[in-house]
Amino acid sequence: MNRRSFISQAATITAGTSLLPLSDLYAAVNKEVSSSATQQNKYEVIVVGVGSMGSSTCYQLAKQGVKVLGLEQFDIPHDLGSHSGQSRIIRKAYFEHPDYVPLLERAYSNWNALEEETGSSLYYKTGLVYFGKSTHPLISGLRESAQKYSIDVRDLSANQTQINYPNFKIPSNFERLVEPDAGFVTPERAILVYTQQAIQLGAEIHTKEAVIEWKEEGQAIRVKTTKGEYTCEKLILTSGPWASKVMPTLSKSLKVTKQVVAWVNPKNWKAFELGIFPCWTIADDQIPGIFYGFPVLSPSEFGGPVGLKIAHHFQGEITDPDQPNRGISEEEELRLRYALTKYIPEGYHSTHVLKTCLYTNTPDENFILDFLPGHNQKVVLAAGFSGHGFKFASVVGEIMADLALKGKSALPIEFLSATRFLGK
């Protein structure tokens, strides 16, 4: 793909849909949230946590006519958990494990269906470039997935990289690849759209209502919150960093860490805007983990700060989601600046905003999508997304609904079972 065709493609995508400013969508959805509240206390399904996974789950259930209640302890959306900050990468050549690829195929399909249903732009096809040594898991893993599932991933020569992606300075011993169909999904807008659709389909959503405890009582499950008590036939737990709080049996299998994200002022803004600059990932040969980033986005459309966004995919400092350490050290900032100045020299002039988010890590860094053992398939959980889960939100909601309503999922989720940590 040459640079001209890349720019033309991105411009077509971004110009196609008229969008409400994110602040207006937020106000509209939260007005609907307030009007959806009733005095009922019996539901077929209760979903605990209405973030990315929970909002998608509420939508999938409501679409099937299920009487569902979503409980969220904060606003919708909020920036206290894992999935906020304007943009999250979506890609199919999954270096983490090729078994994720069928789920990603379904996730792409579901994101597209939601866009068509609502007229919202959620997925932006910017292309994603990968740089690193051939032996690094980023490169070897994505090649394995791409080969197994015939994913369009193209090698780039040094000359092609210079022509199409001139803002990068890549060492001669690094491999260079591009996945044209990759890009990003907008987390805040996606959560708001899913919530709005769920309510319009009959779901009831409560915000600023935290779950205190839940327990089985005969054939039902009773859920006690800071504002009341409810009963349900099935309970779905999509609590993000608070998963171990509502599922104590998982406390030894889930580790919450603080992650730092930066928005910086580049030296040349125009060179890094959406439609010009791609999403990117780089495996440094000195610092463990993977650096990644996004083009400059409009805050009014996408939310979040203005600037060139960069983050480091590597487990940070362990923290408690109820009392998180939101402080950011000079070392944490310097690590991000190091990556930009080394690989994208024109990308850094000064730091604009530093923020934190939370990873919920499993020991093997793979998700848990399963029934909670010991509860006769009455309790379903989605947890442990380990910093790479948001792109799956559209398919996780479908899986959660299927497990709760049908007792099984047709999608291949066996490798994400809870029994690998909790026993059978």
Helical run tally? 12
Largest beta-sheet details: 9 strands, mixed
Q: How would you state the average pLDDT, rounded? A: 93
Give the CA-based shape: globular
CATH topology of the largest domain: FAD/NAD(P)-binding domain
Q: What top-tier CATH class of the largest domain fits best?
A: Alpha Beta
Q: What percentage of the residues does DSSP assign to strands (E)?
A: 15-25%
Global Rg: 21 Å
Provide keyphrases for this structure.
424 residues, alpha+beta, D-Amino Acid Oxidase, Chain A, domain 2, 20 strands, 31% helix, globular, disordered N terminus
Per-chain topology:
Elements: H1 3-15, H2 22-36, E1 42-48, H3 52-63, E2 68-71, E3 88-90, H4 101-118, E4 123-124, E5 128-132, H5 137-149, E6 154-155, H6 158-164, E7 175-179, E8 183-185, H7 187-200, E9 204-206, E10 211-217, E11 220-225, E12 229-237, H8 243-246, E13 255-265, E14 279-282, E15 290-293, H9 299-302, E16 308-313, E17 317-318, H10 330-343, E18 350-361, E19 368-371, E20 379-383, H11 393-406, H12 419-422
Parallel strand pairs: 1-2, 1-12, 2-9, 5-14, 12-20
Antiparallel strand pairs: 3-8, 4-8, 5-7, 6-7, 10-11, 11-12, 13-16, 13-17, 13-18, 14-15, 15-16, 19-20
Helix pairs in contact: 2-7, 3-7, 3-11, 4-11
Walk me through what this model shows:
With 424 residues, the chain is of the alpha+beta class. It is 31% helix and 25% strand. It starts with a helix and ends with a helix.
Quick take:
By secondary structure, the chain is an alpha+beta fold. It is built from twelve helices and 20 strands. It has two domains: 22-82 and 188-251 and 365-422, FAD/NAD(P)-binding domain; 128-184 and 254-361, D-Amino Acid Oxidase, Chain A, domain 2 (2-Layer Sandwich), CATH 3.30.9.
